[in-house]
Design goal:
18% of the residues lie in helices and 27% in strands. By secondary structure, it is α+β, with helices and mostly antiparallel strands. The strands form seven sheets. Strands 7-4-6-5-9-8 form a six-stranded mixed β-sheet, with no helix packed on it. A six-stranded mixed β-sheet has the order 16-13-17-21-20-18, sandwiched between helices. Strands 19, 22, 23, 24, 25 and 26 form a six-stranded mixed β-sheet that branches. α1 (24-33) packs parallel to α7 and α5 (242-251) packs across α6 (271-277). It is elongated and about 95 Å long.
Length: 414
Amino acid sequence: MTPHHTTAPARRSAPRGGRPAVTWEQARATARDAVQPLPAAALAPAQALGHALAAPLAARTDLPPFDTSAMDGWAVAGPGPWRLEDRTLLAGTRPAPLRPGAAAPIATGARLPAGATAVLRREHGATDPATGTLHVRSAAPGAEPGTDIRVQGHECRTGDPLLPAGATVTPAVLGLAAAAGHDRLRVHRRPTVELLVLGDELLTSGLPGDGRVRDALGPLLPPWLHALGAEVTGHHRVPDAAAPLTEAVRRSPADVVVTTGSTAAGPVDFLHRALRANGAELLVDSVAVRPGHPMLLAALPGTGPRPARHLVGLPGNPLAAVAGLVTLAAPLLGRLGGRTPDGPHRARAAAALPGHPADTRLVPVRRAENGVTPLPYDGPAMLRGLARADHLAVLPPGGATEGEYVTVLPLPTG
C-alpha cells in the first residue's frame, strides 16, 4: 500500500488566512447550509428524470385500479367443476359478470368479471370438450377464493403517499408515477455547473512528456457532477494567470463554478486573488481532511438580475480533487437540487484502515461480504485505487481497526 503520511505532526493544518481548518463534518454541513433548493417546475416525466421531487408523490388512483388476473388461466365462479363460457377475457375490456358455477379463459392483467371468485392457472386446469366443462387437474392446487387475483388497491389506494419530496426521479419512479396516474411531475431544477480546469502543464491527448501531464480531471469530473444531480453547462481550460481566472469566474452564468487546482499558496495559485477581485466570501478555506485539505467553498455576490452563485475550489491532485468533490460539491449540489441526503452508510472494516493522526482521511475501499478492504495506490495524485473502489471510507483521526464500523460513501457506477 502507498504511504499514508502518518509521520505528519498531529495538528490541524491552517489555510492561507491563518484560521484553523474546519473539520470534514463541519465542511459538509457548511456546504449544505449555504444554499436553499432551487425553484420547482412541473415537467413531463421524460424531462423529470434525474431531478428531485419538489412535492410528495401521491397516488391518483388505486393500484391495481380494479381486480385483475395475476395469471393466464380461467376466471372461475365458485367451486368446480365449472361450465365453460364461450368467451375469452382480455386486458383492456370491461367484461360482463360471470354466472355462478361458470368459468371463462382469462389473460394475465385482464379485469376480473363480477362474480369471479378465483383464477385457476392454465397449468392447473383441464377442459373436457365433450361436456364443455373445466376441472382441476389431479394433484394440482384448487381454486380457493382469492387465488391468483390482484385485488384492487393492493399496492396503494387513491391519495396514498408513494414517495417523499426530495426523492430522485429514477426510471422506476417514472413507471410508478405513470401507473399512479401522473402526467407531469413537480421537481426542482437541476443546478447548473461550469467546470474550469486550471493548469498550463495539462495535456488533453497523447503521452506525457517534457514536464507536461495528462488532464485526468477533465474526463472524470463532468460525469461525476452529473451523478450528483448537476447539469454541466460548460467545461473550459483556463491559463495559470490571475486575470483570465478572475474573468472566467466573473462571467460564469452557472449556479456553481467548480475549479481544479490553484487552491493553495503556490507561485501560480491565483484562485484566492480571483475570489477577492470578484467580492467573494470564503465560507470554507481548508478542511482537516486527507487528501484534499486545501479545498475551498466561496459565495459569489449577485450582480444586477443575476442571483448569487457559489464556487467550489478543488485541489489539483486527482484523488484530492475527488475528496473535495464529495466533501463540498456533493452536499452543496444536493441541497440546491432539493435532494434528500442519504443516511449514513456504515460498513465493517475487513482489515485495519490506517488514518491520519489528526485529520479525517478518505480511503478508496472495496466492499465485500466480510466488509470493506483498503486498496493500494491511494496517494493524493493517484487514481488507480479509486478506479477499483466502490466506496470511499471516511476514517476518523487515527484510522479504524479490523472489525470496527466506519462511514462509507458510495461511488458513482455510471
